[in-house]
């Protein structure tokens, strides 16, 4: 029985370093070679042919009639070189992206939640809230509202706010009309506050006051400055309103003498000289964060609950 091997089979055996002996005179030796090489051929057939492709063109295409010389195992390093190089990148491939993948959540956690609005503290150099602040005389928000004799002495609202440090020049179209809210705010912020007060029908109330809170410049010497609270309490004793509405974090800290965040100040009940006080957002902030308008409206409704009917 003869062992008939084609060029591809011989190339694969030589690439695997297997020596094929083909005795010409002894038929029994041929049968023995077939029995020995049969299991190896089965294993060779299962090996993928892609890594062996570069070796095939270098092999002879003529049948090998004589025994393979002793120098034929030289191709073995050609196959072992790719085999040794293939597993080399395997451990390094997953280790390279490990550092970026772990660092990405850390970076995103610090930068994913940026503050859209950074409030300025209301404390002076000595650390006391309200130090260096002054309050201007109160004025009627709606001077043309009908006045009632029985409500001329007490009741209504007092709205406290900080005017803009550098007010912009308004065109005649941007200036408030005679029946708009007369406050220290200007432009769109004044229009927004006017709309919110009108939604509560406050333009018909005879006693709706507003007063501007002024902060001392940063370079002012506040060694002998007085806090805001005594002057504010004097205004409340004179007007005797039903409630006080404070707009903005800086104003709330100065009025209440606290360092807390706006969320805590909005959530807690307050009293100044016995008058219920409600803290809400500055209309200038509401223009930048419209999603906070619902919370501002809830604060105004809460303040409306303290107002006595006329």
Key words describing this protein structure:
11 helices; elongated; 7 strands; 2 domains; Uracil-DNA Glycosylase, subunit E; alpha/beta; 310 residues
Quaternary status of these chains? single chain
Average of per-residue pLDDT values: 73
Shape: elongated
Structural class, from helix and strand content? alpha/beta
End-to-end distance, in Å? 122 Å
The CATH top-level class label of the largest domain: Alpha Beta
CATH superfamily of the largest domain: Uracil-DNA glycosylase-like domain
Contiguous helical run count:
11
Strands, total number: 7
Radius of gyration: 45 Å
Helix coverage percent: 25-40%
Topology pattern, helix = H, strand = E: HHHHHEEEHEHEHHEEHH
Could you say how many structural domains there are in total?
Answer: 2
Question: Which regions contain 5 or more consecutive residues with pLDDT less than 50?
Answer: 59-65, 79-87, 92-126
Gist of the model:
The chain is α/β, with parallel strands linked by helices and 310 residues long. It is 37% helix and 10% strand.
Would you mind describing this structure in some detail?
The protein has 310 residues and is α/β, with parallel strands linked by helices. The chain folds into 2 domains: 7-87, no CATH class; 133-165 and 172-304, Uracil-DNA glycosylase-like domain (Uracil-DNA Glycosylase, subunit E). Helices cover 37% and strands 10% of the residues. It has helices at 7-15, 27-46, 76-85, 89-95, 98-111, 187-199, 229-239, 249-256, 262-267, 283-288, 293-304; strands at residues 133-135, 139-140, 157-161, 208-215, 243-247, 270-272, 275-280. Strands 1, 2, 3, 4, 5, 6 and 7 form a 7-stranded mixed β-sheet that branches. Strand 6 (270-272) and strand 7 form a beta hairpin. It is elongated, with a radius of gyration of 45 Å. It starts with 6 loop residues before the first helix and ends in a 6-residue tail after the last helix. Mean pLDDT is 73; it is low at 59-65, 79-87 and 92-126.
């Amino acid at each position: 029985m003869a062992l008939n091997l084609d060029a591809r089979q011989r190339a694969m055996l030589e690439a695997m370093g297997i020596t094929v002996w083909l005795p010409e005179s002894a038929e029994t030796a041929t049968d023995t070679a077939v029995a020995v090489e049969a299991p190896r051929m089965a294993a060779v057939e299962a090996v993928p042919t892609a890594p062996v492709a570069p070796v095939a063109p270098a092999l002879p295409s003529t049948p090998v009639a004589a025994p393979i010389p002793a120098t034929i195992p030289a191709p073995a390093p050609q196959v072992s070189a790719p085999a040794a190089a293939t597993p080399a990148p395997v451990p390094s491939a997953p280790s390279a992206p490990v550092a970026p993948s772990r660092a990405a959540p850390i970076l995103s956690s610090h930068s994913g939640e940026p503050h859209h609005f950074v409030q300025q503290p209301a404390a002076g150099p000595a650390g006391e809230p309200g130090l260096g602040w002054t309050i201007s005389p109160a004025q009627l928000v709606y001077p043309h509202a009908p006045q009632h004799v029985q409500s001329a002495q007490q009741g209504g609202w007092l709205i406290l706010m900080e005017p803009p440090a550098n007010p912009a020049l308004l065109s005649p179209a941007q200036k408030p009309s005679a029946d708009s809210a007369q406050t220290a705010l200007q432009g769109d912020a004044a229009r927004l506050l006017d709309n919110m007060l009108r939604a509560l029908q406050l333009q018909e109330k005879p006693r709706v006051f507003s007063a501007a809170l002024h902060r001392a410049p940063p370079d002012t010497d506040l060694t002998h400055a007085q806090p805001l609270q005594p002057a504010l309490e004097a205004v409340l004793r004179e007007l005797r309103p039903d409630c006080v509405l404070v707009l903005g974090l800086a104003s709330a800290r100065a009025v209440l003498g606290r360092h807390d965040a706006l969320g805590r100040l909005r959530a807690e009940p307050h009293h100044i000289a016995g008058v219920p006080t409600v803290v809400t957002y500055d209309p200038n902030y509401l223009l930048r964060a419209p999603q906070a308008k619902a919370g501002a409206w809830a604060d105004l409704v809460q303040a409306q609950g303290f107002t006595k009917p006329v």
